[in-house]
Write a structure and sequence with these properties.
Order of helices and strands: HHEEHHHHHHHHHHHHHHHHHH
Helix content: 40-55%
Shape: elongated
Strand order of the largest sheet: 1-2
Number of helices: 20
Largest sheet: 2 strands, antiparallel
Strand content: under 5%
Structural class: mainly alpha
Number of strands: 2
Distance between the termini: 126 Å
Length: 350
């Protein structure tokens, strides 16, 4: 009986191993023959760090590259054995050295990274800036949206403080409940050409960024939210000022007009029904005072929020709008008629 069980166990392990390797090109056998066996396999670096050089065959086989890339496609410098030694001082040197290997296949995304804040930081000599493998992994690369929450979890590896705030926001709480509709980091900051939030350009794009979801009628109807928030913002003083500032030659230099995040928060956006939200009536004057220090309790009442004026909401404003909708065409029409009559009399009496 014992021999039978051992045989079955051995057969099962052999079957599992063969399934794990099924998607890996046969050319990999030479590499994985050394790097796929001993999990404790490492290489000593001058910094005293140990660089793991073991590759989990099963994990690699399940990755997006498992069935299509050979080891030499990325490790093109390893073309013989023993391998040529490299002047790597520490593990970060290794990551930076292989950074550009991705561009051979992902050139479009690589060029986008050159416009991003991470590359700008790297170009200044800061090797801690995030590179491809820091976000995507190396031998275990999967599609970044599987699951979607993984994106924010990845960013949290370096931006923990922002992540801690985000997870308590209306978007972060929904994401934790597996809601696929809410934005994750890359929806606002983008994935590869991530803008520096400190130079003001990202702030000026905020209405466009927020509007991608908040003007989506099908999506907003799902949550009972208005799709007129961007329109109402762009037509008020703040929106018009921001639009003019965006068109300023050379880009915005210092913020003048409030954008979405100035009132609603950045990573800490809460539901409009949350009593601690920046935009509930009880807290609104404090929000206004960030830009208008002398604002009194009545100050927020001068703002229509994002409501469209109607007989039920801001009836006086709606009445004035309606009055001018009739008055202005009436005056212009009367003026045109008067001009026509005057010209007719001039022609007839000539």
């Amino acid at each position: 009986m014992l021999k039978t069980r051992l045989f079955l166990l051995t057969a099962l392990l052999a079957f599992t191993a063969s399934r794990a390797r099924a998607g890996i090109p046969a050319e990999q056998d030479d590499c994985l023959g050394c790097h796929g066996g001993d999990k404790s396999m490492t290489m000593d670096l001058p910094s005293g760090e140990k660089l793991p050089i073991y590759v989990d065959t099963a994990v690699f086989a399940k990755s997006v590259h498992g069935e299509m890339l050979r080891c030499a496609d990325c490790h093109s410098d390893k073309n013989g054995y023993p391998h040529n030694s490299k002047p790597f001082k520490n593990r970060r040197d290794v990551t930076v050295a292989y950074y550009e290997q991705c561009k051979a296949c992902h050139f479009a995304n690589y060029t986008k990274t050159l416009d991003g804040v991470h590359f700008a930081v790297l170009a200044k000599g800061n090797q801690k800036a995030a590179l491809c493998v820091d976000c995507h992994g190396s031998h275990d690369i999967t599609r970044p949206t599987e699951p979607r929450a993984r994106i924010s979890a990845t960013c949290a590896g370096c931006h923990q403080k922002e992540s801690d705030v985000y997870v308590k926001s209306v978007h972060g709480k929904a994401l934790a409940e597996q809601n696929q509709d809410v934005p994750v980091c890359t929806d606002c900051h983008r994935a590869h050409d991530i803008a520096d939030p400190r130079d003001g350009k990202l702030s000026m794009r905020t209405p466009e960024v927020c509007g991608r979801c908040h003007t989506n009628e099908k999506l907003m109807a799902k949550y009972g939210l208005s799709t007129h928030v961007v329109d109402s913002y762009l037509s008020d003083f703040h929106g018009m000022s921001a639009s003019l500032q965006r068109k300023t030659k050379g880009g915005p230099k210092g913020m003048v007009a409030a954008v979405c995040t100035d009132c609603h928060g950045v990573h800490d956006i809460l539901s409009a029904k949350d009593p601690t939200s920046h935009t509930v009536k009880a807290n609104l004057v404090q929000t206004c005072r960030k830009c208008h220090p002398g604002a009194n309790e009545n100050f927020p009442s001068a703002w229509l929020s994002h409501y469209q004026p109607s007989w039920n909401k801001a009836s006086l404003v709606y009445g004035v709008q309606l009055f001018y909708k009739f008055l202005i065409p009436f005056i212009l029409g009367s003026l045109a008629i008067q001009i026509v009559i005057h010209l007719w009399r001039v022609v007839v009496n000539r």
